[in-house]
Amino acid sequence: MTDNSKLLEPGFLDALERYSRQLPIIGVKGQERLAKSSVAVVGCGGVGTLVAELLARAGVGRLVLIDHDVVALDNLNRGTILSEEDVGRPKAVVCAERIRRINSQVDVEARRERLGEENVDRLLGDVDLIIGATDSIASRMLINKYAVEHRKPWIYVAAEDLRGMTMAVVPGKTACLRCVIPKPPDREERGTPILGPVAALASAHAALLAIKLLVGREVPSAVYIIDAVSNTIEEVRVERNSQCPVCGRL
Ligand SMILES: [Zn+2]
Which chain residues have CB less than 5 Å from ligand 1, an ion? Predict the structure, then answer.
């Protein structure tokens, strides 16, 4: 297909205008790569909803939003696309509705399910990249194992108290989550203290890492610590562990 023929495609001129502020940065090729990309967001709480929103605004072609839970009143101190009227409604469904209003060109699917061994392949099998924004270390480790086995990049993102953490895992290139956390703690992160802007900082950084990977840029093997006390984002380089039970044999 030539560049001229693209001008005749429905929606092409609208897309040029919609993305005109980011095209100088990622280029038409980068924009096309985003449009062809499919991303799963696991966990549609305060962090996942904002990552999904930013990816939809950037023009990611397909989003699969996965969360079994319903919106609670205590989600509203962050979760920038959630409203009072959403309390009690399924998070994945609410998030999908909002995203369709933000960018109707995005193909959005809501999955009201809890990610587990039994459904991981069905839920994540056909996406190009996974955002792990759940509040459970067990499901993050499940995403990590699945992503490494299937050579899919994924983004770890977490926010708690006054600190956020992100990491891009690119199987075969970067360290994986298990390299960084060899002995995962047996605790849930549900109900931990969190300030809205800290969740937003971590979400924005996770979306940035995702966009970089989707448009074909390299990201380092690193954990990013977003510290709202010292007002810093620290890049901590991490090595792959050749003894890692998850990625050591890649
Ligand atoms: Zn590893």
Answer: 176, 178-179, 244, 246-247
The C-alpha angle with vertex 17 and arms to 16 and 23, in degrees rounded to 5, equals 55
Show the domain range for 75.
26-237
What CATH number is attached to the domain comprising 114? 3.40.50.720
Alpha helices by DSSP H, 36-119 = 48-58, 91-102
Q: Is residue 9 a part of any domain in this protein?
A: no
User: pLDDT tens digits, residue range 141-186?
Assistant: 999 999 999 999 999 999 999 999 999 999 999 999 999 999 988 7
Cα of 227 from ligand 1 centre, angstroms? 25
pLDDT tens by residue, 203-223? 999 999 999 999 999 999 999
